[in-house]
Amino acid sequence: MNATSHHCVIRERFFRRDRQSVPAARKFTHRALADWELVEGFRSADVLLCVSELSTNALLHGVPLGRGFRLFLRYGGDVVRAEVHDSGPGVPRIVDAEDGEGGRGLLLVAAFADRWGVSERNPGKVVWCEFDVRPEERVDPLHPAFRERAKVWTQLTPGE
Length: 160
Known about the structure:
160 residues, alpha+beta, five-stranded antiparallel sheet, 4 helices, 5 strands
């Protein structure tokens, strides 16, 4: 096992129940992928699409009035994982395409992510997806330049 599989870099941010939260979550994710040097040559568009879908689903189905959702991004060298935590009831599922206009977000997540799933949370749930990082795409989180960028990131304000 390589050294990067033991160390994980985590980014997290809370988003209000607001229609601007989906583009903000996408921007937050893009910034993290860029800092992790996973924009060029990595499936960053797939990650952004899935974060958009999971965030939209949380806003439409999982975030009660007056609440929000939390987005966690994790990178440990082998996998990029996105998790959307909300406090709403219900278990997300892939719906049949003939059921109507909506409900295809998880179908996209299942098609583009390497893995996805739902975990329990009290209250609510966590919907997550993972993307494998090929060896040539890996950045060592222990590299001094990487740690310096992570240090700068943690000094940014939460609303940044």
